[in-house]
Amino acid sequence: MTAADATTLLGVTAEAALAVHGVAGLQPRLAHRLAAAAARTRSESTPQHTSPEAGIRAERAPDGSGWHIEVRCVLAEGRRALDIARSVHDRVRAAAVCHLAALGTAEQVTVAVTVTRIAARHDTP
Description:
four-stranded mixed sheet, 26% strand, elongated
């Protein structure tokens, strides 16, 4: 799989996670947040926007047997976090398997979902 295909995998899985009812957004990892903060200090005149893919990490399994995908979600209040996390897990896994199959690479996919916070209705991720 090329770097472009891996980037597409991030986009497909981010889209799948965001489609789950109750997901308010995806939380970037610390490295993405620090890079965005550094970019803002270098160029205050241009607004910075973190892509949803920053809340997804996809990496090859150490033995090369497949992919491990980590999703960091901000959830909307009012629903059970466990139910939403399970839905995110199932949708992201299905989207990744489908995407990889379309590329002709049927590989094993494992998904871990981390709930980073519950956003109040007036909060934004």
